[in-house]
Every structure is written in C-alpha cells, then in structure tokens.
C-alpha cells in the first residue's frame, strides 16, 4: 500500500483529532486512563515519523482542548506532566533537528501550568529556525474561543482606526487566528469511531477532507494511516466549484 500511496497526491497539511486514549486503556489494556494517555503520547512521535517519511510538511495534533480542563484534576495533572516531558524530549530529539522540524504550540497558553509553558518555550526556541517541517500542537485550544479572540482583535483595530470595516476579508480574519502562518488542513483525521469535529479548527476546515476511523488513537497503526491517505487520494476536491 505504501507504493500505491506514494504514487498519488500527498496532503500538504494533516490535522489529527487523537481520540480514544481512555477507552483503549479500559478495553484493551484493562488499565487506568493514565496508561492510555501515556500510550497515546508515544503514538504522536511515531505518527510524526510516518509524516516525515511521506514528506508531509505540516502536521497538527489536537492534544488538549479547553473542555478537557473539566476532567478529573488528577487526570489533568498527569496529562500536563506528560506534555511537559514530551515537549522537552521532542525538542532534544536528534530526528527533529536532522529533519529541521519546527515545533509550535497554540491555544490559550495562559491557562496552562507554568511548568508546561516553560517546556513549550524550550521546544519552540530550540526549533525556531527550522522551516522544512512544521509540527503544531493545539493545547488548551478551542476553535470557538480562537474565533472570538480574532473577532476581538479585529474590533480593537477598527476602534483604533487601524483597520476599516470594508477592508475586513476572509484573509484578514485568517491572519488573526493562531494558525495564521499555516495552510488550511487538507485532511482532518479522527480516531476512536466518533464522527464529530469537537471544536477543532472550525474556520480552517471549510474545504478539508474528513476521515474517521474506529481505531483508538494508541492502537493507530501505519497501515491505518496509509488507508486514510489513500482515502484522501480517491476523493475529488472541488472547493465549492
């Protein structure tokens, strides 16, 4: 299947909704949610290697939503600790530097613990000069919150006479989003069997192809990834035309 996929168009930007860590832990591992989150974090780095192999320059993962803060405090604290460790490890990973992967984290970062913010700064600073590949992590992220933030920024500029109302366009709005320097996703992939977007990149996905699989994120395999790419290649993207 790899040969077949490589002969077709490869998406430039893939975004992942990584769902199913807790169910994987309960049903497959018969263990705690924390073990599922640990396996899920390991899968992120494995998936990034697949993307590098296929020369996919932009990868975005939905790591932690604004709604996830409502979960049990101990679970949230574990995820934050896991994220901190993962960011430091990735920032020091030899493959990240060999492939010139730029790491960036976006969302309402002010709501994250200080130790996670420091890890984010470390990872971003270590890879700031790279541009061959872009690995983006949505943390403390909610698309509605992102859109509201953009609206407020634009409203302030209009009030300060820095921007005229008639000059506001789709491009203007996109420039005020967290993803202003990224192309919109070509493919959005969600694991675990849930068929919804869950407040992820609502503006950016206007013309994205969507792919849903029943596989839980920690159990997501290379063959599952290739099937998603092949499905994308079999579709005709019309962009409303």
Written account of the structure:
- With 241 residues, the chain is of the alpha/beta class.
- It has a single domain (2-142, 186-233), classed as Decaprenyl diphosphate synthase-like (Undecaprenyl pyrophosphate synthetase, 3-Layer(aba) Sandwich), CATH 3.40.1180.10.
- The protein is 44% helix and 15% strand.
- The protein has nine helices and six strands; from the N terminus they run αβααβααβαβααββα.
- The chain has helices at residues 2-6, 21-29, 33-53, 73-91, 94-98, 114-127, 143-159, 170-174, 222-233; strands at residues 13-17, 58-65, 101-106, 133-141, 187-190, 209-212.
- Strands 3-4-2-1-5-6 form a six-stranded parallel β-sheet, with helices on both faces.
- Helix 6 (114-127) links the parallel strand 3 and strand 4.
- The radius of gyration is 18 Å and the shape is globular.
What's the rounded overall pLDDT mean?
Answer: 97
What is the domain total for the residues?
A: 1
Number of strands: 6
- Strand content of the residues, in percent? 5-15%
Q: Per CATH, which architecture?
A: 3-Layer(aba) Sandwich
Major sheet strand order: 3-4-2-1-5-6
Overall structural class, as computed from helix and strand content, comes to: alpha/beta
CATH C-level:
Alpha Beta
Q: Uncertain regions: pLDDT < 50 for 5+ in a row? A: none
- Principal-axes geometry comes out as globular
Element order: H for helix, E for strand: HEHHEHHEHEHHEEH
């Amino acid at each position: 299947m790899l040969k077949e996929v490589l002969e077709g168009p490869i998406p430039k930007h893939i975004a992942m909704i990584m769902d199913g860590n807790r169910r994987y832990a309960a049903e497959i591992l018969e263990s705690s949610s924390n073990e599922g989150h640990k396996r899920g974090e390991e899968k992120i780095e494995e998936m990034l290697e697949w993307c590098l192999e296929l020369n996919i320059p932009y990868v975005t993962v939905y790591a932690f939503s604004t709604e996830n803060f409502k979960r049990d405090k101990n679970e949230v604290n574990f995820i934050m600790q896991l994220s901190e460790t993962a960011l430091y490890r990735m920032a020091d990973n030899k493959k990240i530097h060999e492939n010139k992967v730029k790491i960036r984290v976006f969302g309402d970062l002010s709501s994250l613990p200080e130790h996670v913010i420091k890890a984010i700064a470390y990872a971003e600073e270590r890879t700031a000069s790279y541009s061959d590949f872009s690995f983006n992590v949505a943390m403390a992220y909610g698309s509605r919150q992102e859109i509201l933030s953009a609206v407020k920024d634009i409203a302030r500029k209009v009030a300060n006479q820095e921007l005229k109302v008639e000059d506001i366009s789709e491009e203007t709005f996109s420039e005020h989003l967290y993803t202003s320097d990224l192309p919109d996703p070509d493919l959005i992939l969600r694991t675990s069997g849930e068929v919804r977007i869950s407040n992820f990149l609502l503006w950016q996905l206007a013309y994205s192809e969507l792919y849903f699989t029943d596989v839980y994120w920690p159990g997501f395999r290379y063959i599952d990834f290739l099937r998603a790419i092949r499905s994308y290649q079999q579709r005709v993207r019309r962009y409303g035309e």
